[in-house]
Amino acid sequence: MAVKSDPGRVSRRALLAGGALAAISAGCSVVPVESPRAPPARRRIRDLGIGIGSLTPGRWNAITDVPGVRVGHVTRIEGEGPLVPGRGPIRTGVTVILPGDDVWRDNIPAARFTLNGNGELTGVSTIDRHGLLETPIFLTDTSNIGRVMDGALAWMLDRYPEIGDSAPVPTPIVGETWAAFLHDAEGRHLTEEHVREAISAARSGPVEEGAVGGGTGMLCYEFKGGIGTASRRLPAAMGNYTLGVLVQTNHGRRAQLRIDGVPVGREITEGMPYEGRKSKSILIIGATDAPMTPVQLGRLAKRMALGLARTGAVSMHGSGDLLLFFSTGVRVRRGAVSMDVPVWNDEHISVAHEAAVEATEEAILNALAMARTMTGIHGNTAHALPLDRLPDIMRKYGRPIPGR
């Protein structure tokens, strides 16, 4: 259909052009119209010049540095404005951690630790009973935990036809944190297909961080939070093994935040989200290729809580602080009678403890550093940590960032 022109209507572009010509004719300077500014670049905490701990990160400084571990995300960011339950706005997703190519048939040792239990991590009774992980690990928001479990089990039933026949039906490992400050939690908005997409997207290499996957709608120390990851390599004398951590952050109060020991949260008081439907939870998943027993992995899971504490967290009453650690260095073939496997020497485990603490601390800070400002339901806004403020704050407390 042809669009008719209106001789009485002058476009804004024509007015601007005419104004510019008039100004030039009058010998006046012209102030150009300002273009929209791109959002400031986000960088990981180490790339900002803040090194956490003393051990060396892996190649990607991510949980995927552990051989065989892959991570995939599906992110849903749709709509804006007032909350319409069941329709949006939507700020959710799912993150999957694949511990190997076939964890169902080749189970691996695992252990979990509950620092504060106001949250859910499904399927852990199996880990408690025999110390083995037999499904991938999924992270999402609270209201979608059932949807993700259903999608995960549907994928496993398709891939392993023996389930329910000659093999037991597993309970997938699914963890959650609450996203209702930004997200239409009542609407859920995830499907079986989203879970399958996350599995298909799982890759080794660098991991996307910030407001992605299960971390899409999350806050951290009252800034925007989400997914973060980091890793550490053990010394050659201890086998060159790797420990990696991935977190889904949704915890803490602003004044608690510490970055490498500096009380950054006390220095940045603007941009606070209103006191409403905020939450205080975190999911922490650790991995290593060191051949460890479930008891040893349980010790590492507890040490990840110390890394959380280094960032200022106190594990509040309403918090779901749930931690799980697994090892790809031992594989228990389903149906095998016995296996001859190496076992980590406890005499060297203190360095592994240190690695777990450092990687957890840095993973949390990476989630903060990489997350961008996000607006959700009713215009609720979670502001990104202002990275440009960090050099002055660190310098104020005698911790200048090299070269800044």
From TrEMBL:
One Pfam short name: Peptidase_S58
UniProt-recorded Gene Ontology molecular function terms: aminopeptidase activity
Species name: Polyangium fumosum
InterPro entries: ArgJ-like_dom_sf (IPR016117), Peptidase_S58_DmpA (IPR005321), TAT_signal (IPR006311)
Listed name of the protein: S58 family peptidase
PANTHER family assigned to the protein according to its UniProt record, in alphabetical order: BLR5678 PROTEIN, D-AMINOPEPTIDASE
Gene3D superfamilies: L-amino peptidase D-ALA esterase/amidase (3.60.70.12)
Superkingdom of origin: Bacteria
